[in-house]
């Protein structure tokens, strides 16, 4: 897996970002990206970002299951072949609601930025969440997210 990344230059890894539940909305994410991308793009001259995107399991097992099913169906252009060790497969929930079948907004935003996500999940027991590997081109982030947000202010 790592040989694929060693052929690329200027990769920056973004670690886990924890946001208080009260502030988990599009505004917090926008502020993060609006401030992060210029630093990564211009000061660090990064060409690629990698990290993970998570979905918590506590009281959220149905949404985690349906999100996982959605990610397993991604095209080759949307996905990246990074294996989770060990891979975690969420079980079908006993019950769910229609809103559980939608992927979380953050996943949707990443896919709209042409981010490539892993199809396999890693179960982070410390945070009780499923982590999916994320890999994106910084220029795509600038075009799809930052410039769009600046124009729509």
TrEMBL record:
<dbReference type="GO" id="GO:0043810">
    <property type="term" value="F:ornithine-acyl [acyl carrier protein] N-acyltransferase activity"/>
</dbReference>
<comment type="pathway">
    <text>Lipid metabolism.</text>
</comment>
<keyword id="KW-0012">Acyltransferase</keyword>
<keyword id="KW-0808">Transferase</keyword>
<dbReference type="Pfam" id="PF13444">
    <property type="entry name" value="Acetyltransf_5"/>
</dbReference>
<protein>
    <recommendedName>
        <fullName>L-ornithine N(alpha)-acyltransferase</fullName>
        <ecNumber>2.3.2.30</ecNumber>
    </recommendedName>
</protein>
<comment type="function">
    <text>Catalyzes the first step in the biosynthesis of ornithine lipids, which are phosphorus-free membrane lipids. Catalyzes the 3-hydroxyacyl-acyl carrier protein-dependent acylation of ornithine to form lyso-ornithine lipid (LOL).</text>
</comment>
<keyword id="KW-0443">Lipid metabolism</keyword>
<dbReference type="InterPro" id="IPR016181">
    <property type="entry name" value="Acyl_CoA_acyltransferase"/>
</dbReference>
<comment type="similarity">
    <text>Belongs to the acetyltransferase family. OlsB subfamily.</text>
</comment>
<dbReference type="InterPro" id="IPR052351">
    <property type="entry name" value="Ornithine_N-alpha-AT"/>
</dbReference>
<dbReference type="GO" id="GO:0006629">
    <property type="term" value="P:lipid metabolic process"/>
</dbReference>
<keyword id="KW-0444">Lipid biosynthesis</keyword>
